[in-house]
Amino acid sequence: MTQSVDPAVFKAFEHDGWQAVYAGYHDAFGDLTTQAVGPLLDAVGAGPGVRLLDVATGPGYVARAAAHRGAGVVGVDFSAAMVAFARRLHPGLEFAEGDAEALALPDRSFDAVVMNFGLLHLARPEQALAEACRVLRPGGRLAFTVWSKPEEAVGFRIVLRAVEAHGDLSVPLPPGPPFFRFSDPEECRRTLLAAGFVDPRVAPIPQVWRLPSPDALWEAIEGSTVRTRALLRAQRPEALAAIRAAVRAAVGAYQRGRAIELPMPAVLASAAKPTPHWPDSERSSPRGGSRTLPGKAGTGKGGDA
Questions:
Q1: How many structural domains is the chain composed of?
Q2: Which of 71, 79, 107, 198 is the most exposed, having the fewest neighbouring CB atoms within 10 Å of its CB?
Q3: Per residue in 45-79, pLDDT tens?
């Protein structure tokens, strides 16, 4: 039976997790999640003269890349530790504590809003999208990334299958929204339209997670994530040892020379805030299907399971 989500409890769980793992996350996931930044910024036309809000900025990778393109950038994150870390990494850029579900920012104050692997950590993602729409000027664009489904995002597949085989997926944790909900392009389109956006577009982003050793996947997930870290730490000691051994064995299939190369694709969704003259028909149905967006991987808060 699906458990109901208490938004306050889940938000506190995620917040406490990010307060603890900010530096480890940067070390483990930085090279992976930055691969989506170029396409993400292309999707909103980030460049000179664009006022851009980076929500769930994490270590500030997207904010840095947008600033390098000439955009005026503000990065917000609900974790004070993560905000302080971003300021240390990128002195001179503007970062502030902020709640994605209740942005303390004026209406129509940004030309673009982006969120790199942040939506899947929110208790109320629909509310966050509505807030993004509110702070956008008419005609401005939103873009977000999430992980592809675990059948494709191999690192998550390996860990979750190991827990399924040797541990207990039902250990008590604060229930949250389905982690892979927005891996479905149709769900992205539906939710964007419901939040008031138009012209939703969804495209895959191929990514590869290059790790230095067979133990590196376990170390990254166990030490630098929130939900899966809590799931693993709730296992019995003997189960945890078996899970770790299974993860290490499965990773071996992706050995390439001295490194491990795991396919970890992402889903990129974007949409526009309608202008007053936008056709009513475009407000209720997506235009077209999945599209390949321009741009290539470049130099965002990555997500975890």
A1: 1
A2: 107
A3: 999 999 999 999 999 999 999 999 999 999 999 99
